[in-house]
Amino acid sequence: MNANPVAIPPGEGAGSLRFAALLATYMQSANLPLPNSALRFIQGSLSMTDDQAGWIFTAYLAASAITLPIAQWLAGRYGLKRIYQAALAFFVLGLLLATQATTPLEFVGARIIQGAASGVLAPLSMAIAVETLAPARRGKFGTVWTAIVLFGIASGPSIGGWISEHFGWRPMFYISVPLSVFIFLVMALLLEEKKAGKSPSFDFFGFGTFTLGLISLQMLLDRGERLEWFASTEIWLEAMGCALGLYLFVVHVLTAKVHFLNKSLFRDRNFVLSTIIFFALGFVLLSTMALTAPMLDELLGFPPDTTGFLTIPRGVGLVGAFVLMGRLSDRIDHRPFVATGIALVIYANWLMLGYSPLMDGWPVAGAGALQGVGLGVLMPAISKVAFSTLDPKLRPEGTGLFNLVRVYGSTIGVAIVQIFFFNNTQAMHMALASNLTPFHGAAHLASVQTLEGLNETVTHQAAFIAVIGQFKILMLAMVVVCPLVVFLRKPVPAN
Questions:
Q1: Tell me, what's the pLDDT at 161?
Q2: CA–CA dist 292, 377 (Å, integer)
């Protein structure tokens, strides 16, 4: 995380390099939620269970979280151009494997390859784009880059939904292949190979233990429900891996002089509290999307293209508010905007608790737009508060950790809402079915078709109630971190 970007001096072709890098940024972020509106088609085609559907998101996110911290080190060690092109090749490989998948395991494996390549493409694309700019223009570029990432996340479901509705779900992965080829050719023709003068150092022990702990936790959350939790040897092994990895990482941080994360980062109150809030933001950002699309598609019966289009208001609110916030002066106190953003997200999730099986798409569009505005206000505001009091020497490492925390917030958030969804669905099914007991005496008069229809109705109602319960969890995640705003220090004005 502490490797320096490889410098690329601005010159002829810099604009083309920058465009290709930003296109790659959009492409890798859009592919994360791309299958979201077509889950019903993918599940039916691959015989994928509901719990396995959650792996479509977590596999991509977890893989990108592994490769994200080592991207700059790889570029410095083996060459930026070589690593970037290799990541593009692996990304295309993942896309093609996804189109050929015939089993859930094959499809999840393809998503892991896509995610691992994405974790390298994202930071190196930003490094390439930044280094093609004149120094005076680099300060504000982070806002542009993040806006493109958010635009990709926001537009991915609508693109995937429309393609799936009209052409099937597999072709939606093909659209990124020609884009990847174009980016590859631009980099091959215009990007000069650069490596660090000496082999950069990297804390592999700290990175390894940190990764072991969090990936074991991710596997535990993803696989626990299917394997009946601690009745399974695998879950015990994953729990022990999580405990061991995080224990060794904490000891390493406390005892080693040079390690994966600089201890000085944790001495800055604003940075620590803002990082916790940013984790909660990541928890809500993609988990809402992972819940909304299946609710619209499977429970309310909306077609995939309509499901995708209903996510557009959330994306417009998110990107629009983010861009407007980026125009505010760094000299003002952003803490009120942090509080405002959190309040808007909480209120939007409270509106989601009023969803009904009889509703049309307007409540979803309205609550989504409001939540998007809240997230769009919160994200830049909390970022500015986090780094306003941090030593400038620590900002490169702090930026890496800050982004990594959001990614892990998203992947753990998706896993947790999936767990509670299945548990709550089963509990609500039993509770609703128990109310049918007084009519058990007439059950022999009902046909098999009638009983099956009755069970399907009960299951449908239980699943919808469970989805609403998950929106409550997301709301509570923001409620829990809301008091932290009070303890944020007034930011130091930028010079």
A1: 85
A2: 21
Quick check: 396 and 404 in contact, CB under 8 A?
A: no
Q: Quote the pLDDT of residue 83.
A: 92
Are 318 and 307 in the same domain?
yes
Domain holding 474, by residue range, is 262-434+447-495
Q: What is the DSSP string of 255-269?
A: H-SS-SS-GGGGG-H
The CA distance from 26 to 20, in Å, is 10
**Residue 5: inside a domain, yes or no?**
yes
| Segments of the chain with pLDDT less than 50 | 1-10, 441-448, 495
Residue 234 CB neighbour total at 10 angstroms: 13
Query: Are 410 and 266 members of one domain?
Result: yes
**pLDDT, tens digit, for every residue of 105-144?**
999 999 999 999 999 998 899 888 888 887 777 767 777 8
Verify that 85 and 73 share a domain, yes or no: yes
Nearest of 471, 473, 476, 149 to residue 342 by alpha carbon = 476
**pTM of the entire predicted model:** 0.82
Task: Assess whether 216 and 281 both reside in one domain.
Answer: no
- Distance separating alpha carbons of residues 317 and 298, to the nearest angstrom: 25
470 contact partners, CB below 8 Å, separation of at least 6: 287, 291, 417, 420, 421, 424
Q: Are 255 and 270 part of one and the same domain?
A: no
Phi (first) and psi of residue 26, to 5 degrees: -65, -45
